[in-house]
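Sanity check. The docking grid for iron/sulfur cluster depends on where the pocket ends up, so I'm generating a full predicted complex first rather than guessing from homology. Inputs follow.
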Amino acid sequence: MLSSLYIHVPFCIAKCDYCDFYSIPVKAGDERIGRCIEKILCSTEAELERFRVESIPSIYIGGGTPSMLGAQRMTELLLGLSGILSRRSIPFHPEFTVEANPESADRDFLSCCRDRGVTRLSLGLQSFCESTRRQLGRAGESAALSRSLALASEFFPGNFNADLMAGLPCQDEKELLSGIGKLLEYAPSHVSLYSLTVEEETPLARRLSESTLSLPPAEEADRIWIAGRDALEEAGYEQYEVSNFALPGKRSFHNIRYWRMENWLGTGPAASGTIIDEEAGTGVRYTVPADLDVWLLGRGAEAAGELLDRFTLMKESILMGFRFIEGPDPFLFRCRFGLDIEEAIPGTLEKWRRRGFVKKNASAMTGEGLLFLDSFVIDAFNELESILPAGCSGSVPKIPGGSHGRIF
Ligand code: SF4
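Predicted complex below; grid placement will be based on this.
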């Protein structure tokens, strides 16, 4: 079987106020870091065996903050991984991305990544503005951003991504455009521009409800994001997904596999994996418990599995596939479900095509259409449910993170 691999490193230097990813703040010498690496390697080998994986087209180490591991721990992880793949005769030349944060992406870490098979770096910048970073509880000073960008362009020239966010406290159009200007001086191959999403139960949500912090109003936040999108497109970065922009030939292959709902395995606390049975049009999703200590002890740490029945998988294929500028893969959709996308949601496509938000010659959103993806998906689900036999509506996947929301 062919499957991508996602590894979740559940550590950060400090917790950002807006973040609801599973990660815990630790100091560099915390003994759980070493145990976590050992367990990640064991789990990876077990998952590869369980699903009989013979080929891995992409690997993504995210988090959390993988660069927090430092060069020595990262070397252990990368050597361990290459050992597992070579024992299993799995070719080791995938697109291989590692996430890093500016304050910990130092020369030793980046050179260890580059020298041990990593092909692509993803830097979490979010904002160049010192006061915005403070308001978000984001570790690292803005000066570290320029240093890390210079290192990224030295170690991964033409092959690194940078994340920026729009709709942040104290942010206006000018501030975002100035950040994009600074970023582009380092020629990233890929930029992710996310809208800030206020997640429940985060310090950010609490501070907003207590009125000790304010964000730009929603319309202003949208204008800021659109100004950023336009600046990136003018600079030659193609928007190929709701929040992702790439120079020609530099799209993230790993993320495209998520949007197309193609197999991936996940290891590390809170990671999930999805394996599709293409012929049956069904899938299995498993999620590793989001608790490092429980997972390390192995108590209740077996990933919980969930069956994606045909209708749930069809909904997810629509939900995820229309995020991508080329839409769901028409060939995969037909193989999985025995019908074309145009046959599954004809009314929705026709309605949105008339408005100019779906392409004339493809089942895919236009660039402007991506701004309204949430409403499109609601229409598509309503139409699907109206044509399904009674009792077969499947479960309703959560729309991840709004129109420009971060999903991975
Ligand atoms: S946003 Fe990133 S760096 Fe901040 S706490 Fe979440 S995972 Fe860690």
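Relevant for the grid: The CA atoms of residues 316 and 397 lie 6 Å apart.
Also worth noting: Residues 12, 15-16, 19, 21, 23, 63-65, 101, 124 surround iron/sulfur cluster (CB under 6 Å).
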